[in-house]
TrEMBL record:
Lineage per the UniProt record: Bacteria, Pseudomonadati, Pseudomonadota, Alphaproteobacteria, Rhodobacterales
Function per UniProt: Catalyzes the transfer of a dimethylallyl group onto the adenine at position 37 in tRNAs that read codons beginning with uridine, leading to the formation of N6-(dimethylallyl)adenosine (i(6)A).
GO terms, molecular function: ATP binding; tRNA dimethylallyltransferase activity
Family: Belongs to the IPP transferase family.
Record site: Interaction with substrate tRNA: 113, 135
Species, as recorded: Ruegeria meonggei
EC number: 2.5.1.75
Residues that, per the record, bind ATP: 26-33
Domain of life: Bacteria
Protein name: tRNA dimethylallyltransferase
Binding site for substrate: 28-33
Length: 297
């Protein structure tokens, strides 16, 4: 956010009434956390995490969580509050965030996990938990086989390149006998109506974002990403969501001698760029009515 002059910064934001929660979505490395912090400092509020990787207590650097200094400058919630081996879904997040919606401080909900925002503002179906045996079976299947086991209607709603999303749809269909799309079509009312919020999507120039992604991973390495991953190396389990965070598999491969640090850096950067592309596409398709803000120009 430092590339934007202060006057330009505030001029580009929508009005922020004191009584409305602020929602900030955007691709990785786009400056979401910096924006949330500036809004909190200027208008007040508690910053609430809506990023699936930043919930884990083992990842501060590699998930780009706010620093300890940033967390001290404004209240932060739902950051690093989940153990590495804990199952944590969108439903878990929705239950955790609900009490914060009626607290004394206005929530500023920020992150890159689009499903968290849609569950909050569009509602979420109360789908039964997946039995362990079905989860274990899904973990062993190739992505193509998972896709073949999901109904066409649901496939049109999800990112079929995102294994976690496809596997979730497969598991729901196997466990309940109903498609994920069918469950979604029978959802209860949302916890928070979009019209009662200040919804912001950071929608920046593609090349500007790619440059920031490259610089940010180098900064992660400089500020302790490698020791952070090494500390969790003995607990590595590829089936756990915590170990699927971008940068973790790549640095583990380096630590195990399967690639050089430069190769790990390149693969993690490429994976982050691909992830950011999927995020941008998803936000533009699903958040058309939000305020789209570009700080890159």
């Amino acid at each position: 956010m430092s590339t934007v002059k202060t006057s330009q910064f505030w001029d580009r934001l929508p009005p922020i009434p004191d009584d409305k929660p602020v929602l900030i979505a955007g691709p990785t490395a786009s400056g979401k956390s910096a924006l949330a912090l500036r809004i909190a400092e200027e208008f007040g509020g508690v910053i609430v995490n809506a990023d699936a990787s930043q919930v884990y207590d083992c990842w501060r650097v590699i998930s780009a969580r706010p620093s300890a200094e940033e967390e001290a400058s404004a209240p932060h919630r739902l950051y690093g509050h989940v153990a590495y081996d804990q199952d944590y879904s969108t439903g878990h997040w929705l239950r955790d965030v609900t009490p914060l919606l009626s607290g004394e401080q206005r929530p500023i909900i920020v992150g890159g996990t689009g499903l968290y925002f849609t569950a909050l503002t569009e509602g979420m179906a109360d789908i039964p938990a997946t039995p362990p045996r079905i989860r274990a079976a899904a973990d062993q299947l190739e992505l193509s086989k998972l896709i073949n086991g999901v109904d066409p209607g649901t496939l049109q709603r999800i990112d079929t390149h995102n294994r976690a999303r496809v596997q979730r749809a497969w598991e729901v269909q196997q466990a309940t006998g109903r498609s994920l799309g069918d469950w979604q079509d029978n959802t209860p009312p949302p916890m928070l109506a979009l019209c009662d919020t200040v919804p912001i999507v950071i929608d920046v120039d593609k090349q500007w974002l790619l440059d920031r992604i490259t610089r940010r991973f180098d900064q992660m390495l400089e500020t302790g990403a490698l020791p952070e991953v090494e500390a969790m190396r003995h607990l590595y389990n590829p089936s756990l969501s915590a170990f699927k965070a971008i940068g973790v598999p790549e640095l583990l491969a380096y630590l195990d001698g399967h690639m050089t640090l430069d190769q790990a850096r390149e693969r993690a950067t490429i994976a982050t760029r691909q992830f950011a592309k999927r995020q941008r596409t998803w936000f533009r398709a699903r958040m058309k009515s939000w305020n789209h803000i570009d700080f890159s120009k």
